[in-house]
């Protein structure tokens, strides 16, 4: 649920990233086919450099009265693109494949992956620039036209329906009661995640001593972060007392020390996936993220106050904004 945060000025208000040509409305009237004002057409040719084109386009936006935030957003986006292509690259050398390669690099190879909203805006920047160049006759075809616009928002996460939760718990319980080879780990893991909504890394770091059993009627688990910058994620979460017998059986069986789950996070993922398969869950993969979101939505539906839910999930107030909207949608509000 970690969310990339951007500075308020990085998103141009004149651009609707969900609509590829929203920002182009001020540049080209595509429906009428009208050309931009003649006096605003810069001295560009097909063999002009990308540097010259982006400079001319920025001057054009200033003359047309684009907002400062819009101009800044385009300038930053096109600067990244020029750095990838090379500012001296000529316009007639740039193809649709180059744009696709650039988008792949930006998302997977640049080392600083952007959010879905930023990606959508950067695609829009390319479409507006090359649509403008094509519209004023500088280039014969628009290389950005075939590039697919990405949705501004990623799809909603998947959660388990109430009946699926019941099936998963029963499947995990079957391991617990297996007469030939009883295993308490699947049921403990699933129960812990559905009750707390903790992340995979948080679960993997749990120490045996992080589970407080001193008061059997109100057990608790402590989530700890060493980094001071993540201190807001430190929290103590309540557990259902019914989990204690399973925990005791698990501790007797595995004798973990010092970590509660003395195996790799990947192995824990395998455990969850196997439980999901045994439960017959086909529409959703049972994993840490699915159970975290399921826990959040169930708590919200059960009336947990928003601030308490934010703290339970270990989210900052900024991260909570987007998470909150997703929970609302998933809960059917």
Counted by DSSP, the helix tally is 12
Kindly provide the name of the CATH class of the largest domain: Mainly Alpha
Arithmetic mean of pLDDT: 86
Structural class: mainly alpha
Pick out the low-confidence regions. Answer: 1-41
User: Which bin fits the share of residues in helices?
Assistant: 40-55%
The CATH architecture of the largest domain comes to Orthogonal Bundle
Tell me the count of domains: 2
Tell me what you see in this structure:
This protein has 333 residues and is mainly alpha-helical. The chain has two domains: 8-135, no CATH class; 162-331, hpI Integrase, Chain A, CATH 1.10.443.10. It is built from twelve helices and three strands; from the N terminus they run H-H-H-H-H-H-H-E-E-E-H-H-H-H-H. The chain has helices spanning 50-64, 68-85, 96-109, 116-135, 162-176, 185-196, 200-205, 243-254, 265-278, 288-301, 306-313, 317-331, and strands at 211-212, 220-223, 235-238. A three-stranded antiparallel β-sheet has the order 1-2-3, with no helix packed on it. A hairpin with a 7-residue loop joins strand 1 and strand 2. Helix 1 packs antiparallel against helix 2, helix 6 (185-196) packs across helix 8 and helix 10 packs across helix 12.
